[in-house]
Amino acid sequence: MNVTIINIGDELLIGQVVNTNASTMSRLLTAAGMDVCKTLVVGDVYKDIWVAVDEALRDSDAVLVTGGLGPTKDDITKKLLCEYFDSELVENQMALDNVRRIFESRGYELTPVNRAQALVPKCCEVLNNDLGTAPCMWFQSKLEVRSRKSETVPQFRPPTSNLQPVLVSLPGVPFEMEWLMRNRVIPKLQETFKTDIIITKNILTQGIGESFLSDLIEPWELSLPENIKLAYLPVAGLTKLRLTAHLPKDFPLSTFHFPLEGLYDLAGQYIVGEDCETLDELVHKTLTERGLTLATAESCTGGNIARLLTAQAGASAYFKGGIIAYSNEVKESALGVKHSTLEAHGAVSEETVREMVEGVRQRMGTDLAIATTGIAGPDGGTPEKPVGTVWIAVADATHTEAKLLQFGANRRQQNIDRSTNQAYAMLMRLVVK
Amino acid sequence: MNVTIINIGDELLIGQVVNTNASTMSRLLTAAGMDVCKTLVVGDVYKDIWVAVDEALRDSDAVLVTGGLGPTKDDITKKLLCEYFDSELVENQMALDNVRRIFESRGYELTPVNRAQALVPKCCEVLNNDLGTAPCMWFQSKLEVRSRKSETVPQFRPPTSNLQPVLVSLPGVPFEMEWLMRNRVIPKLQETFKTDIIITKNILTQGIGESFLSDLIEPWELSLPENIKLAYLPVAGLTKLRLTAHLPKDFPLSTFHFPLEGLYDLAGQYIVGEDCETLDELVHKTLTERGLTLATAESCTGGNIARLLTAQAGASAYFKGGIIAYSNEVKESALGVKHSTLEAHGAVSEETVREMVEGVRQRMGTDLAIATTGIAGPDGGTPEKPVGTVWIAVADATHTEAKLLQFGANRRQQNIDRSTNQAYAMLMRLVVK
After folding, report:
1. Fold entry, domain B2-193
2. Cβ contacts of residue A300 below 8 Å, gap of 6+?
3. Section B72-83 average pLDDT
């Protein structure tokens, strides 16, 4: 079934807020076997919302709308939908009970403005919003014409069901929206429409560019069955491969597997891991599972390696600490890099990065360590060590691996992001070897 | 002028990637005085992209498209635009030189697949992409019909210019897209559509909520002239005020200034700085200008304070280093926090944060230091110290300031971001006092 998402809000159109609602909704719908065909953002403008809703209902099985349900003047969605569906606002008992319950639990009086939140178009079904006062509204459209039926204007993919399209209006508050999607909207959509099963799998590759990888694995890609699609998602020195399989509703899932043997035969040396979105997630998962501890010594990455790991809940189980050794004095005092090493080879050198990684591992008493030192740019390059020159090292109790990378004169942030991913990939290869 | 943004990519529609491109583009376009009327995401599906482009060109002055320009099979934008504009693919010399330059700088051979990136529709103008191999393409549409001219189907807001609409195709890689927007696309749109002069000014406030600030400065806001608009942009514990002035193309700029006196009279105590987008940028600028050095000791922020500063070119002028003291052992060994302090008061306490900030300042020999320790969540809270409890300290040679913050049980990343901004604001107040 085809779903269109419409997120309403001026704050999205001026770029003040990143539209995480669209990605959360898309992720949940995809996992439930529905096809999100397009997502649209429009402002708090009556005409634009009307047109967006009207067009989406013509080429979708379901249209999910967020935003514009608050009690203030710029929230116009409910009034608009009432007019669009040619209905009238009536007080809904369940919605009123819900608003009253929430106000009582917060110790507030129910004002007339808030009581008005229980007014909904008579033609809709209210899905109870346990976490907030704005009602979630389910409309079965009376729309008979399911496409523009134009000979000249091309059309989006048509709806896949013969049912009349559904429109659901949800609040834009992210945690209310997500709770409603999981507990009310998706179950009811699944019940109403018959949906495919969708399974996705990520494979993280590193050390090969997207186009080289594409050439390398072409024979395998061409051998994939019709119902499995492959996408390349390059990001900061990695290429993530994403496989998506569409299976019929009654497919016996235990018998399904992605045909990965051919991929491993051709490109196994570049595969760092599966089933994670990012390398920091893979490191987090692997070290947690294996009970290995980690310390970091970062120069050019400036704390980025540590902060991506510590952004994940539970990182304290394996991450003990890090030194951001930006100046040479700190490399000496906090990591024990020898003054003579820095004098003879410079801060960006194999000798220095090895002393950094071994120093931090020893001082923090961890199983593993990572170190980086390089020239992130845009300044600080020399003919021998141009911007983008980075040394990375990883170590365990018995091995230290160091690697020189030349990223070219890229953007500073790109050099930092690539160094970070290189370091994670080297660590994974050390751990999994 | 009306702009529509179309972001192409299956990864966006399955919710694997959050669509930050839309918000970055919206922010840059809004700051340049253009109205983003809608943004649309479609998948790597020929028909859907075609319809999205076709419809957008009918009701926009400019349509900006990202994605689908890579060298792999699922990248179909270029071929589609070539057919849409009834053109043919030809090798563009500037694009080829650019691809060659980038491959040479990375030490790679130019393969046929990569050379194909220099193929562009004959009818477009190439805007050079200094940071990547995918070309940015500017199309002046031949479209005569500027709206659907339908009596029955309602329409979005119409274009505001009489010029033929423009379509620009950009790569979806965020840093390439952003560089192209700033350096190529927006200047050319301004030149083509002869837009107003737009001047913006940011004022960063901290320590007061948006609605309280709004009440406080209302008299000043009401006194602003018609051509100056005020927006409130709350982000992670800050409220950024953005003033936007629209001036006619020939306005003598040297005579213009924003009327800020009234704002400082009413809310001066909450203003941390001007003319920066973020507090890390303000800290970077201020410490660089004043020649003051900084060290950090981070527990709950996990390196985030350091990495935002070191992401900025030239940070080594003032940032000497940091300790990410995630475990108690590292707090003792690397920062000199006393074992007895941790025993008596715990890691999340005023006593500990003071020893952390003074320890790191002394050990790294800097003018200033920042320290954080807290419970980012979602686990680790106790009745006395619930999730969201954070101690932050800043120090110079003579003063140490410590502050307890209670963010409530928010999301982990939100607690990290708020702690980071609080730390920067406290540092700015210490430096500027």
Report:
1. Molybdenum Cofactor Biosythetic Enzyme; Chain A (3.40.980)
2. A372, A373, A374, A375, A376, A390, A415, A416, A419
3. 85
pLDDT per residue as tens digits for the range B2-31? 999 999 998 899 887 899 999 999 999 998
Name the A residues in 241-270 with CB < 8 Å from any B CB.
242, 244
- Could you report the predicted ipTM of this complex, rounded to two decimals? 0.80
Rounded mean pLDDT of chain B? 91
User: What pLDDT, on a 0 to 100 scale, did the predictor assign at position A149?
Assistant: 45
B115 Cβ under 8 Å from any chain A Cβ: no
State which fold the A197-274 domain adopts: Alpha-Beta Plaits (3.30.70)
Beta bridge partners of A91: A119
Locate the chain B residue with the closest alpha carbon to A50. Answer: B154
C-alpha distances in Å from residue B272, one per residue of B94, B205, B264? 46, 6, 11
Which of A39, A200, A296 is facing B41, going by the closest CB pair?
A39
Is the model's pLDDT at A111 over the cut of 90?
no
Using the beta-carbon criterion (under 8 Å), do B71 and A20 form an inter-chain contact? no
Kindly report the length of chain A. Answer: 433
CB contact under 8 A, B157 and A47: yes
Mean of pLDDT values over B403-424 = 89
Give one word for B109, left, alpha or beta, with left for phi > 0 and alpha for psi -120 to 50.
Answer: beta
Would B2-193 and B279-432 be classified into the same CATH topology? no
Q: Which of residues 374-413 of A touch B (CB under 8 A)?
A: 376-380, 406-413
Residue spans per domain, chain B: 2-193, 197-274, 279-432
A45 CB within 8 Å of a chain B CB: yes
CATH of domain A279-432: 3.90.950.20
Type of residue at B313 = A
The reply to whether B323 touches chain A by the CB within 8 Å rule is yes
Mean pLDDT of A366-383: 93
Q: What are phi and psi of A12, to 5 degrees?
A: -80, -35
Q: Which residues of B touch A307 (CB under 8 A)?
A: 301-304, 307
Q: Which of A155, A277, A305 comes nearest B16 by C-beta?
A: A277
pLDDT at A145 over 70: no
Helix/strand/coil for B290: helix
Q: What is the C-alpha to C-alpha distance for residues A5 and A17, in angstroms, rounded to an integer?
A: 17
Q: Is A92 exposed, middle or buried (0-12, 13-18, 19+ CB in 10 A)?
A: buried
User: Would you call B175 and A414 a contact, using CB atoms and an 8 Å cutoff?
Assistant: yes
For residue A138, the model assigns a pLDDT of: 97
B202 in contact with chain A, both atoms CB, cutoff 8 A? no
pTM greater than the 0.90 cutoff: no
DSSP track, B255-277? G-----HHHHHHHGGGEEEES-S
Which of B20, B42, B155 comes nearest A38 by C-beta?
A: B42
Structure tokens that stand for A191 in this block: 């019940």
Over the stretch B262-273, which tens digit does the pLDDT of each residue have?
999 999 999 999
CA–CA min distance B422, chain A (Å): 17
B287, B330, B333: which to substitute to probe chain A, counting the most A Cβ within 10 Å? B330
Beta bridge partners of A369: A295, A395
Measured in whole angstroms, how far is the alpha carbon of residue B413 from the centre of its chain?
16
- Residue of A2, A8, A14 best to disrupt the B interface, most CBs of B under 10 A: A14
> What SS3 class is residue B370?
strand
**Residue of B45, B321, B378 lying closest to A330 (CB–CB):** B321
CATH topology of domain A2-192: Molybdenum Cofactor Biosythetic Enzyme; Chain A (3.40.980)
Predicted confidence (pLDDT) at residue B54 exceeds the cutoff of 80: yes
